[in-house]
Design brief:
The protein has 247 residues and is α+β, with helices and mostly antiparallel strands. The protein contains 7 helices and 8 strands, in the order βββββααααββαβαα. It binds zinc ion. The site of zinc ion has 8 residues, from helix 5.
Amino acid sequence: MAIIKTEAITLRTTDFSDTSQVLQFLTGSDGVVSALARGSKRPNSPFQGAIDVLTLNEIVYYQKRSSLHELAEVDQITTFPGLRCDVSRVYCASYAVELVYLLARDTHHPKELFDLLRTTLYTIERSRTLPQTVISFEIAALRVAGFEPMLDHCTSCGGAIRNQGCTNFSPLQGGLLCSSCSAEVTDALPVAPGAVSIARALAGGISKPARVKISPKQAIDLRILLDRFIETTLGSRLKTKQYLSRI
Ligand SMILES: [Zn+2]
C-alpha cells in the first residue's frame, strides 16, 4: 500500500458517518482522489475538525486498491479567506470547482488542471472583474482538458475570422463560423461585434487577466456561448451555472 504526499484542493465533502467524511480532492499527480477521513468530525481528531470544501492542503493518504483511499494527515495551507467574505466570490469559486471536477475525468494533464484551479482561486479572492476572471478560467480549463474553442478560424472551412462585425459560434463544432458557413450550421449562435476579440484577450491567461471592457450585450453573448459549448462538450449541465447570473 503506497503512501502519497501531495498538495490537494478539496472539491467535495460527504458525511460518511456521524464522525467521518469522504473527501474528494484535486491533486496534481492523480487528478481527483477520493479518501475516507476517519473521525475527522471529532473535535480532537488528527485532522483538527471537519475538512471544508474550497481549501488548499498538503495531504498524506494511503493508496488502496479500491477507488476509496484512506486519509492519514491534512496540513491546511489556506482556506482562501478572501473568498469567504463575499458571496459572489464563493459563487465563482464553486463554479470553477464543479467545472474542474467534470473536466478532470478526461484530462491527461492533472498537474496543469491543479495549477490552474489553485491560481484561479487565489485570483478570485482579489479580482475586481469577476465575470472576466471566470471567462479566462473557463477557456484555460477547456484548453487543458483538450476542448479549447477555436476562436481564430472557421471550424467548418478553416478560413480566418476577422474581429469586426457579427459572427457565429457552433457549440457542436467547437468554434467560430465564417459568414458563408454560418447558414449551413443548425446550432449557430450569433456573437456580438467585438466579443470575439474580447474572448481572445481573456484566453491569454488567468493570473494576468486582460483589462478589457465588456458591454452588457457582449457579456450576455459570451455567457450563452460558453454555457452552450461547455454543456455540449461535457454532456451535462453544471448545477452551479445559475450562480454566474448573480455575480
Ligand atoms: Zn467557414
